[in-house]
């Protein structure tokens, strides 16, 4: 299905080739910062990152604007990767954002109690947590999407899949110490962010809300309410926006906000993505530069950016900006490295695909094999979409992909660590939070009983509306139906067969005179 473009969009997203490869020998010569679409928060030090519309206005940075500004784009102005990234609603001030120091020096904070909510995926902390964590993951309709008529099977199917996958997942978590370090690292990031904000004269409480494991987002929200926070900055720890990560968390936040009078009246804003921030780009470049020095011939090393994949349909049908933002992010990093006289060849691929549907290409495992065939001998893996170490970096990259690389003829392997609590990264996150404070807005809701929207300044609802303005379901990973011997038909045949098996097993367990028993397949003693 094709979703209608938001009213402020000037063009609809164009489809991306499923087999397209993002592989460059140097920073793209066609890359132009003026192509970048404005983000919700921009640093004044790098205004070129924010030049997506021409605006001549005088803005008082001390005044909180509660209006949304829809910029007009010139017909000649291109979009990144031919995709519309119009997912950000922002105020006039978003194009002339004051620096963090400007905000800290004003009375924007006043008597308000500031809170920062860090959103992340979550992960099992022990091997016993693995199966219930997987259940929470697969029970999310943004992860496993069933037709509306079968929605009642969401939790039974999640239970079935989680039990099926748990043994292999436990092996993976056992290999990295018996559990995910994600919570520990995110807690450390929260503590360091709080300290950095305080140093910058902005006292704030920082909370952690995980999507699929403790501390759940709901738990963090309850603590925010108990602490009496009056201004909240929501900061997903995903540098690039995707429906399946930030989008899923925002859907959950939206449902929580709609039902709570305190949250309706609490001012908040969201930083939807921040991959273009100068501090983030420099922090990533610092880590890459450092790891390159560990090779005997640093200039010959292939820089291999590996990002978490998403189903292709998210990009082609739902307008997910993830692929365009990821490619733009890589360009920005390589451009920064070029200023340091680092012009290594590089490529981008996508990892962690699951299921029979097509995901973003090129795939990491296939790309590693191909690089080996082409004679690449030194490779530096860069986990571009991860800011914390977890199973995708510690097991999938460090173990599986390293082994594959060595088997494919690559002789020297290195891996850039996730950012974690790297000081420049944490300081830049603090600046992003501070710079967003003048644009924190209250929900303009006159009738709380009939409220239809959460529209504080460029926040939850506005971001969700960018790819789903009518709250429709996300598209299926394949075309819903085609007649004949097609990939779509085979996929749906498989789903129908799986559903039939599940229903038969359910009937066997719950019915005394089941088919298996009547047909003699199961003896009475087996029941």
From TrEMBL:
Keyword match Cell membrane: no
Coiled-coil spans in chain: none
GO cellular component: chloroplast; mitochondrion
Catalytic reactions on record: heme b + 2 H(+) = protoporphyrin IX + Fe(2+)
Compartments it resides in: Plastid, Chloroplast
Region (Disordered): 1-24
EC class (word): lyase
Pfam families tied to this protein: Ferrochelatase (PF00762)
MF terms in GO: ferrochelatase activity
Enzyme Commission code: 4.98.1.1
Pathway where it operates: Porphyrin-containing compound metabolism; protoheme biosynthesis; protoheme from protoporphyrin-IX: step 1/1
Sorted UniProt keywords: Chloroplast, Heme biosynthesis, Iron, Lyase, Plastid, Porphyrin biosynthesis
GO biological process per UniProt: heme biosynthetic process
Low complexity composition-biased segments: 8-23
Protein family membership: Belongs to the ferrochelatase family.
PANTHER family assigned to the protein according to its UniProt record, in alphabetical order: FERROCHELATASE, FERROCHELATASE, MITOCHONDRIAL
Function: Catalyzes the ferrous insertion into protoporphyrin IX.
HAMAP family in the cross-refs: Ferrochelatase
Protein name: Ferrochelatase
Source organism per UniProt: Cicer arietinum
Encoding gene, per UniProt annotation: LOC101509199
């Amino acid at each position: 299905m094709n979703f209608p473009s938001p009213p402020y969009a000037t063009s609809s997203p164009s489809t991306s080739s499923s087999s397209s490869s993002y592989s460059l020998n140097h920073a793209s010569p066609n890359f132009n910062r003026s192509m970048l679409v404005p983000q919700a928060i921009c640093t004044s030090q790098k205004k070129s990152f924010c030049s997506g519309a021409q605006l001549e206005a005088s803005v008082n940075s001390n005044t909180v604007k509660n209006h949304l500004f829809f910029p007009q784009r010139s017909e000649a102005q291109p979009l990144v990767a031919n995709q519309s990234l119009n997912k950000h609603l922002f105020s006039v001030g978003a194009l002339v954002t004051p620096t963090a120091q400007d905000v800290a020096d004003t009375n924007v904070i006043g008597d308000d109690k500031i809170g920062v909510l860090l959103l992340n995926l979550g992960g099992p902390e022990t091997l016993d947590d693995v199966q219930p964590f997987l259940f929470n993951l697969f029970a999310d309709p943004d992860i496993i999407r069933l037709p509306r008529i079968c929605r009642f099977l969401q939790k039974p199917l999640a239970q079935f899949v989680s039990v099926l996958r748990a043994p292999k997942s436990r092996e993976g978590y056992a290999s990295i110490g018996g559990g995910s370090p994600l919570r520990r690292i995110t807690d450390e990031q929260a503590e360091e962010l709080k300290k950095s904000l305080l140093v910058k004269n902005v006292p704030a409480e920082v909370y952690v809300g995980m999507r699929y494991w403790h501390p759940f987002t709901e738990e963090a929200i309850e603590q925010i309410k108990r602490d009496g926070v009056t201004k909240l900055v929501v900061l997903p720890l995903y540098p690039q926006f995707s429906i399946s990560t930030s989008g899923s968390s925002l859907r959950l936040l939206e449902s929580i906000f709609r039902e709570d009078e305190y949250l309706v009246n609490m001012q908040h804003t969201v930083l939807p993505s921040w991959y273009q921030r100068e501090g983030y780009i420099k922090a990533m470049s610092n880590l890459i530069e450092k790891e390159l020095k560990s090779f005997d011939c640093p200039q010959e090393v292939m820089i291999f950016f590996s990002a978490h994949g998403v189903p292709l349909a998210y990009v082609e049908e739902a307008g997910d900006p993830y692929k365009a933002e990821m490619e733009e992010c890589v360009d920005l990093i390589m451009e920064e490295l070029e200023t340091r006289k680092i012009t290594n060849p590089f490529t981008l691929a996508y990892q962690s695909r699951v299921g029979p549907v097509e995901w973003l290409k090129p795939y990491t495992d296939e790309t590693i094999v191909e690089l080996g065939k082409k004679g690449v001998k030194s490779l530096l893996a860069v986990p571009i979409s991860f800011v914390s170490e977890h199973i995708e970096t510690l097991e999938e990259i460090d173990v599986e992909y390293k082994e594959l690389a060595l088997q494919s003829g690559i002789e020297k392997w290195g891996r850039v660590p996730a950012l974690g609590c790297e000081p420049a990264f944490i300081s830049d996150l603090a600046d992003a939070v501070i710079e967003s404070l003048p644009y924190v807005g209250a929900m303009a809701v006159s009738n709380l009983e009939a409220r239809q929207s959460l529209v504080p300044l460029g926040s939850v609802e506005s971001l969700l509306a960018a790819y789903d303005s009518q709250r429709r379901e996300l598209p299926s990973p394949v075309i819903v139906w085609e007649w004949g011997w097609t990939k779509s038909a085979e996929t749906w045949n498989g789903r129908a067969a799986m559903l039939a098996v599940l229903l038969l097993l359910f009937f066997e367990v719950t019915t005394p005179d089941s088919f298996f028993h009547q047909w003699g397949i199961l003896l009475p003693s087996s029941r």
